[in-house]
């Protein structure tokens, strides 16, 4: 058999390309992105792989404009394209027309269901204020990730006084959630021994939904909710929101933003202090100027104490002079009054007044000695007349003529026989003495002459 004519490499690659493109139409392939590159041409080159194989892919600029997925290393995607060979290098590749995130719909549905259940249980109700700045910040993240570098850089620039302790944990994969839960439990137990540990930052950089899925773990969300230490969560980029973010006391869109929220900016504080210092200096100088003017004014009003004492001495001398004059005038007046009283006393001596009063007293005594018996006799005569008149109308005088007054046991006067009863005891008042009588019989018939009752 004669030897066949050899094919050039270009011819072989062209035949292979034609066979691939003719044999396979459009296909959907699922795998994990790796080695994603975006040169200035606008094309996107990547490797699509699974557990045992890989396939090069190319997404040209005209199609890349219509792909909404970010296409990052580690993303799991579905791509639609056709198989081909890049003839100059003989590279077997997939020319991609469309890209979709693989498994996102199922993951998002599970995420929304778990989110609704935890929210109904109150796991997202934490709202404690984190200390600003914290004394000792506990950063739970990967020691090799960009998140810890960003956090440390921001803290060093803004507030280097905060003590930072890295708690190394995996932040991706099956071991990530249990490791973070264990770290939170350990930190809460140690916080009782070291009260200076006052805040926890749970953080990692961006990634696909699958990369961040550990932060959607139900048990991790509950561990954050039950943490005694306040927790800030900063997972992924600004558009990424995990269940850990909802369960935490505070959330930041990125690790750098978390560090900015946790501590103040010392440069701003220094600027504020400088501004306040300037304001204080101006206010102090203005106060000193005002007080200086006030002191000058008071100094101008102030007089030497000797002047005041001289005025007081002068006023005192004037008061003393007025007092002496007033005392001399009062003394002269009292002397004049005493002399006047002495002259009146000499003109009317008490001995003469006593003699005249003695004479008047003797005359009154003589008049009283003659008038008293006469007045007494007159009153006696008048009293005797009154007695006679009284005896004339007195019921006792009637009793002296033989009449009697009957009284019952209550002292009431008995005027009618009907007012008595047989057997009743009566008292009879006579002109002289009293009798006790008992009614034996009564006659109620009126009579011209009073009848005696025994």
Automatic annotation (TrEMBL):
Key words, A-Z: Cytoplasm, Exonuclease, Hydrolase, Nuclease
Top EC category: hydrolase
Domain of life: Bacteria
Residues covered by the Exonuclease VII large subunit C-terminal domain: 126-437
InterPro entries according to UniProt: Exonuc_VII_L, Exonuc_VII_lsu_C, OB-fold_nuc-bd_dom
GO biological process: DNA catabolic process
Subcellular location field: Cytoplasm
Primary location: cytoplasm
MF annotations from Gene Ontology: exodeoxyribonuclease VII activity; nucleic acid binding
Listed Pfam families: Exonuc_VII_L, tRNA_anti_2
Catalytic activity field: Exonucleolytic cleavage in either 5'- to 3'- or 3'- to 5'-direction to yield nucleoside 5'-phosphates
All copies of domain OB-fold nucleic acid binding, residue ranges: 7-99
Quaternary state and interactors: Heterooligomer composed of large and small subunits.
Family: Belongs to the XseA family.
HAMAP family documented for this protein: Exonuc_7_L (MF_00378)
PANTHER family: EXODEOXYRIBONUCLEASE 7 LARGE SUBUNIT
Record function comment: Bidirectionally degrades single-stranded DNA into large acid-insoluble oligonucleotides, which are then degraded further into small acid-soluble oligonucleotides.
Protein's name in the database: Exodeoxyribonuclease 7 large subunit
Gene: xseA
């Amino acid at each position: 058999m004669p030897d066949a004519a050899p094919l050039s490499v270009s011819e072989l690659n062209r035949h292979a390309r034609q066979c691939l493109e003719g044999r396979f139409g459009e296909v959907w392939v699922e795998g994990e992105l790796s080695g994603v590159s975006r040169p200035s041409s606008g094309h996107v080159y990547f490797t699509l792989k699974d557990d045992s194989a890989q396939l090069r892919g190319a997404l040209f600029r005209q199609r890349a404009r219509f792909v909404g997925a970010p296409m990052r290393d580690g993303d799991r995607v579905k791509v639609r394209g056709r198989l081909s060979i890049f003839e100059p290098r003989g590279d077997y590749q997939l020319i991609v027309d469309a890209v979709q995130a693989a498994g996102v719909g199922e993951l998002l549905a599970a995420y929304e269901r778990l989110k609704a259940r935890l929210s109904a249980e109150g796991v997202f109700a934490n709202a404690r204020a984190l200390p600003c700045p914290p004394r000792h910040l506990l950063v739970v993240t990967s020691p090799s990730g960009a998140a810890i570098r960003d956090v440390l850089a921001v803290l060093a620039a803004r507030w280097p006084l905060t003590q930072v302790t890295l708690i190394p944990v995996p932040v991706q994969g099956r071991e990530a959630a249990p490791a973070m839960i264990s770290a939170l439990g350990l930190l809460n137990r140690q916080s009782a021994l070291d009260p200076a540990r006052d805040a926890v930052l749970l953080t990692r950089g961006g990634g696909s939904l699958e990369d961040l899925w550990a932060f959607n773990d139900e048990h991790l969300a509950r561990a954050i909710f039950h943490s005694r230490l306040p927790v800030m969560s900063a997972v992924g980029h600004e558009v990424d929101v995990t269940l850990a973010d909802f369960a935490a006391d505070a959330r930041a869109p990125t690790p750098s933003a978390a560090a900015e929220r946790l501590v103040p900016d010392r440069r701003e504080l220094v600027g504020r202090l400088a501004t306040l210092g300037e304001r204080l200096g101006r206010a102090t100088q203005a106060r000193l100027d005002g007080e200086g003017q006030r002191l000058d004014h008071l100094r101008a009003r102030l007089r030497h104490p000797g002047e005041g004492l001289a005025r007081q001495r002068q006023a005192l001398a004037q008061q003393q002079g007025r007092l002496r004059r007033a005392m001399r005038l009062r003394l002269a007046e009292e002397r004049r009054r005493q002399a006047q009283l002495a002259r009146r006393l000499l003109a009317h001596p008490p001995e003469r007044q006593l003699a005249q009063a003695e004479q008047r007293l003797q005359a009154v005594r003589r008049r009283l000695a003659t008038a008293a018996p006469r007045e007494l006799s007159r009153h006696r005569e008048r009293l005797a007349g009154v007695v006679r008149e009284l005896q004339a109308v007195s019921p006792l005088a009637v009793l002296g003529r033989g009449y009697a007054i009957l009284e019952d046991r209550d002292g009431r006067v008995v005027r009618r026989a009907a007012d008595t009863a047989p057997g009743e005891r009566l008292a009879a008042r006579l002109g002289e003495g009293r009798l006790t009588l008992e009614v034996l019989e009564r006659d109620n018939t009126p009579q011209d002459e009073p009848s005696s009752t025994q």
